[in-house]
Amino acid sequence: xRTRGSGTAPVGRPxxxxxxxxxxxDDGSMAVEVVLMTPILVMFMLFVVALGRMVWVxxxxxxxxxxxxxAATLERNIDDALREANEVADLQTQNRDCDSRAITGDFQPGxxxxxxxxxxxxxxELGLIGLPGSDTITFSSDAPLDQFRRTD
Length: 152
What we know:
Helices cover about 40% and strands about 20% of the residues. It has about 150 residues and is of the alpha+beta class. The relative contact order is 0.14.
């Protein structure tokens, strides 16, 4: 072993330097990661879209019940109120399977009435490809009747 001057370190390597370990070739590892992660990311994005659409559908039905009970408060008797509330709800929930509509409460001046509507929402409508089934959404909304109004 050759030495420089009076030192003991070999000529080709500075003092304290470590040997480099054998480096593996990792060409193409990023491509494999992308291929494995793409389906997971796409499924996650579809799940987020489906959740957003579910919130949108629930908001539509909730809005329909709110507008229907408000329309019912403007009528003079309970039969006309239910008819008007159903018409308003039908206009807003055109293609939905909604049933079990009812008005409850005290239909007297100063009273409060509640309109309840139950709708069946198919998962096909939410953009989830391949998931069968449906969910039942029930909303109730209430509104006060004017205290100084005349009813039949």
